[in-house]
Each structure stands twice: as structure tokens, then as C-alpha cells.
Amino acid sequence: MNQSRGQAKALDKLVETYHKQTGVRVTVDSPGPTNFPAKLQAKSQSGDMPDVYSTLTLPEMIPYYKAGWAMNLQPKLTGDWKDNFSPIALDLTTLKAGTVNGLDAGIYSAHWEIQTMGLMLNTKTFESAGIDPKAPPATTAAWIEQLKKVSGKTGNGAFLMAASLADRFLLSHASNWLTDAEIDATLAGKASWKADGWRKGLQLLADLRDAGVIVNKALPGGDGDNPTVEKGFFNVQDTPAIFDASVAIGVARATAPDFTDYVSMGIPKAADGMRKPRVYGGVGKGACINPKGKNVDAAVKFVQWLTEPEQAKVFVDMVGLIPANPKVTAADLPSQVAGFASLVNAIEITPSPLNTDARTALVSGVQSLVLKEKTVDQVLDDLETAQKRTK
Amino acid sequence: MTTHPLEGVAASRPRVRRSPIARRRELMAWCFLLPAIALLAVFTLVPFVQAIVLSFQQWDGVSTSTPFVGLSNYRFVLHDTVFWSSLRNVLIFGVVGFVLGNAISLGMAVAVNRVRRGKAFFRTAFYLPGVFSVVVIGMMFSWLLAPNAGILNRLLGAVGASGLQHNWLEDPGTALPTVAAVFLWYHWGFGFILYLAGLQDVPVELYEAASLDGARGWAKFRYVTWPELLPVTAIVSLLTLLGALQVFGTVQVLTNGGPGNHTMVPTLRIYQEAFTNQRFGSAAAMSVIFGGALVLLAMLQLWLSRRRK
């Protein structure tokens, strides 16, 4: 069962090839990203789990792992198969001991994609404001100055981010001051959200607000907030710069194939940053294998085949993703992905999942911050309270 | 020792033996009722009881174990500020649905009832919004109200009223009233149809008699139409109020509770707690609290309308 609408066509094509090569027929059910979690949950409750299914985020997957619906692939990830994954992909997939209560260490999913988070810039709009979008600004202050110039042209701001991505924005920018270990300690509830690094990390949004560069002066919220932002960037093209994941390239290919005048890059470093900034990232689309299924061996073989270089290349060509397979080189990637792909080695390694209550508090908190209803400290207070509440 | 007067009556009443035909008829009636009772039990009573039981358990939606945790889910809900603030928001929806929903539906019904031609057209046109799926309505209005590309703001710009252009759904000042207005638009057809049916049942003789007594427009409405519509008003009020308090789809599609939590409503909070946070126990506790409040409110409303009658 596949979650990704953007990858459905590539999967269908690969399944057809697999059938021709091996004679094994694989049926792909693609209920779509919105319906997928509920459908997967219903299947788990009725004991009718598919042989192979898309992974969700770690907090969403934990119940499935605990219920034994995902095979621990660690013993199988040796030799040739292991070579299909870059070390960072394996590191990001490995569940370390003690990070999730009641769950053994292991690797419960295999991924053909790596995602990084960063900025996407409409090259034409930036150029029309006299800015070279391919020359990244040296600091966040310089970036804000650029956005101010572009705002002057558009008259309605230059930057937008979905509220639901606030955690990724914060986790990326706070890395200017916090180490991965410090970030992980906060996510695990062992350190405070009120540390200076978090405060400075969140302050960037307040600075963007004060500079008047946020489009419509508000961050979209709601279930479809990121599609709204993507629509403004790719389809309507009234949003010059957005914060998004590399997976958005696939969205662009599916919804606005003619629009290719954009580049990607990371959030510029903070002038007073104490560390080299990293980015929020992780493994992207991938699969879990149901160990209680009827076709376990066949499912393992299919997933192994899916992650081989030839198939990874099909995903790159059709979807425009960053492959987890290191044998696909940077030269194979589309130019729009280049900026995101350059961030792969800067992905934070923070094994602890972000507490859902803290995330909810942050998502609504940043909206209030941009609307000047709350201060940075109040948002961090809310985060702290939410995290403690479900510790 | 005293005996209750009715006990004596009951004792002295001769036992009536029902005929086999009457007994067969009653048995037949129960047979017809059985499928409905079974459906009611399986799809209403059992889930209702299960929800109450679940509110004392812990469940992530996937695990097979559901340990009992006593009152901890209720303690969790008591400290959930978002849930309690969502109750305040839904009360606004309730008041808007109750007052404006009734007034608009009644006004439209009275107007349509008076026109001589085109009744069928207005009946269809006014009921039309209620025919669409709530998701379609949400999508439609999110396009209409989009800050830059939305039709409403473009229209305002085109007529020279660009000062009125607004980010309707993302400004805390306008988000809740905007969602409430969409809700009203979606639901007014239901009350309108009931009021129209009620108006057509008012005997013409009453209006004639009122005319003879010298009553004109407002007096006729106040002393004839309104009292005759009281039973309809009671049911429309109750259903509109409950509909407004249970609003979910419109809010989820339009704002998902944002900006911040300015449009959060209890049903959406319950949904998020269950399906996003995967805490079905506390979601069940919230639904028990909210459901209980709705039952109490419905009982109060029915009691008040009976007293008024």
C-alpha cells in the first residue's frame, strides 16, 4: 500500500518492470496521502495488513512497530543490500536502543529517498528584484534584506512557510547554536525548550515578521497548509520563496510541470551562530514489510529490488527525489534538486521523535507569533508545558 | 398498613386475555422492529458503551493491548486548555446557528411563502448549499476566500473596495466569523425547508380572522404565524443548535482550527487527539464530556420549548 501520490506513477512503472523481469505480480494500492494513515490503521485493526506498505513519520509508526507489523530488517541489511543505502540513510533509519520505550533497537523500514528541508526560490522574481538567486546570502540578515527587496517588487511579502513545517524550520535554524545531542536531549524531554538556542532559532520568524516579508502577514495552517504554500509557489507563482522539503520537487512535477525556474538552498547561517548550521531531514518515502504477511520472502525481495540503483534512477527521473542509494550520482539529479541534495551531509542526527503535543503547540504557536499575539518566549513556554504534560 | 389506592385497582382489574390474533400481531410488530433494534444496538448502543469504556483505557489505535488507566484520561482532558477554549468557540457557533440560523431560515421561508411565482425555484436555490458535501463546500470557500487569488478579494479590488480586502481565514479577528458564516450558508436550507412546510400548514382562516380583527403584517406574524410555527421552531432550533455545536467538516477543511487555535472546535480537537496524536483514550474522554454536555443541552432546550408551549 503506497501513500505517495507523487510517486504512484513511478511505482506502477516499476511494478510492471518487476513483473516482466520476475513473473511476480505486485498490486499497488494508492489511497492518497490523506487517506493512507486512516486506511492503514483500519487494516491493522482488522488484521489485514498489506505485505508491503509506505512508512509514515517515526511517531506515527511506533504503534505499528510495537504491534509487530514491521519486520526488523537489520539482520538482512548486510552485503549487497546494505550497499544500496548511503551511511546517512542507514543512520537515519536505525532506531537506537532506549529512544522509544518498549521497542527494540533495529531498522524497521527501507527507504529509496532522503529528504532535506530548505528554501525554494523563484529565480525570475528574484532576478527582477536585482538579486542573483543562485548566489546564496551569507547570513540570515542578508537573506532578510534580499526578501525585503523582493517584497518591494511584489508589494505583498516574499516568503511563506506552512505552519505545520514550523518544527522543521526551528530544528534547522536552532542548529546554529545547538549540537545534535542538545537538540536530541530537548526532543527526548531531558533538556529545556527555553534554552537560548531555541529562542534564537524561533526569533528568525519574528524577524521575518518584523521585516514585513511574510506573504499576507500570516502563516497558513490547517490540513492543507503546505499544499497551499506550494500552490502559491509552483502554480500561481505569487510567492517568491518558500520553506519546504525536497519532496516538493515531485509535487511540482505533478502539478506544474512547465514551471522549472526555481532553485533550492538551505536557510542561510546566523551571523552570531556558534556552529555550522545543519538541516532537518530524514529518510523520505520507503517501505515496511509485514512479517505476519502471507508473502514475506517475496515482499523482502521486492523491496530489495526497489532500492537497487536502476530503480533508484527511475525514481530520480520520474519524481525528482534525492535517492538513498549512493550509486546514483549528483550528475543524475535535476538542477532544482541540487540545493536540497547538497544538504544531505548536514542532516541532523536526532534519534528521539518530537513529542506530538509539543509539535502541536509549536504549530499553533508560530501562527500566533507571526500574528503578534505571542512572543517567542511565550511560544517556548507553551512548548515546554506541552512536552511536560505527556512526558 | 395502608394500601396504595392503585394497587387495589390493579388487583381488582380482571386479567384480559388477548386473542391469538392480537398476540400474533404484536409478535409480527416485534419481528419488524428486530432489524432496526439490531442495527441500533450494533451501530449506536455498542459504540456508545465502547466509547465510555475506552475513555478509561489507553490505546494508540494499533496495539492489541488496551490497559485500563482509571481516570487519567479525564485528568488529561481537564488540563487540556485547547479543548476548553474550543468549547468557547463552539458556543459562539451555537449562538450564531441558533439565532442567525433561525432568523435567516425563517425570513427566507416567509418571503418565499409570499411570492406567487417561482416558489419551486427559490425552494431549490435556497436548499442547494445543503446538498453539497461539506468537503466540497470547504474547498469552494477556501478558493473564494484565498487572500491573493481568491474571488472575494479580487471582486473587492475590481469594484474599488481594495481597502476591504482581507486575509479572511488567517486573521484571528475574522477567522471565526468567516467560518461561522460559511456554516450558516451551508445549513440555512434545512431550516428554510422546515419553516416553509410549517408556513404552508398554517390555516388560512386564521389570517382571515386576524384581518377582520384589523391585524396587519407584523401583527399577523406575531399573533398568527409565530405561534403556529412554534413546534417547527422548537425542532429547527434544536437541530440547528446541535448541528452548530457539532460542527466539524467546515472547520477542518477551512482552517483546521487555526490560526493558532482561534477556530478550534471540540469535535476537531477530539479528531486530532485520536487520529493525529493517536491517543484514543483521551479522545474518548473528551467525547464523553462533550457528548454529555450536548445531551444536557438538548434536554434543556426541549424542556424550555415544552414550557413555552
From TrEMBL, chain A:
<protein>
    <submittedName>
        <fullName>ABC-type glycerol-3-phosphate transport system substrate-binding protein</fullName>
    </submittedName>
</protein>
<dbReference type="InterPro" id="IPR050490">
    <property type="entry name" value="Bact_solute-bd_prot1"/>
</dbReference>
<dbReference type="InterPro" id="IPR006059">
    <property type="entry name" value="SBP"/>
</dbReference>
<dbReference type="Pfam" id="PF13416">
    <property type="entry name" value="SBP_bac_8"/>
</dbReference>
UniProtKB/TrEMBL annotation, chain B:
<dbReference type="Pfam" id="PF00528">
    <property type="entry name" value="BPD_transp_1"/>
</dbReference>
<keyword id="KW-0762">Sugar transport</keyword>
<keyword id="KW-0812">Transmembrane</keyword>
<keyword id="KW-0813">Transport</keyword>
<feature type="transmembrane region" description="Helical">
    <location>
        <begin position="27"/>
        <end position="53"/>
    </location>
</feature>
<protein>
    <submittedName>
        <fullName>Multiple sugar transport system permease protein/raffinose/stachyose/melibiose transport system permease protein</fullName>
    </submittedName>
</protein>
<keyword id="KW-1003">Cell membrane</keyword>
<keyword id="KW-1133">Transmembrane helix</keyword>
<feature type="transmembrane region" description="Helical">
    <location>
        <begin position="90"/>
        <end position="112"/>
    </location>
</feature>
<dbReference type="InterPro" id="IPR000515">
    <property type="entry name" value="MetI-like"/>
</dbReference>
<feature type="transmembrane region" description="Helical">
    <location>
        <begin position="283"/>
        <end position="304"/>
    </location>
</feature>
<dbReference type="InterPro" id="IPR035906">
    <property type="entry name" value="MetI-like_sf"/>
</dbReference>
<feature type="transmembrane region" description="Helical">
    <location>
        <begin position="124"/>
        <end position="146"/>
    </location>
</feature>
<feature type="domain" description="ABC transmembrane type-1">
    <location>
        <begin position="87"/>
        <end position="301"/>
    </location>
</feature>
<comment type="similarity">
    <text>Belongs to the binding-protein-dependent transport system permease family.</text>
</comment>
<feature type="transmembrane region" description="Helical">
    <location>
        <begin position="229"/>
        <end position="249"/>
    </location>
</feature>
<feature type="transmembrane region" description="Helical">
    <location>
        <begin position="175"/>
        <end position="197"/>
    </location>
</feature>
<dbReference type="InterPro" id="IPR051393">
    <property type="entry name" value="ABC_transporter_permease"/>
</dbReference>
<keyword id="KW-0472">Membrane</keyword>
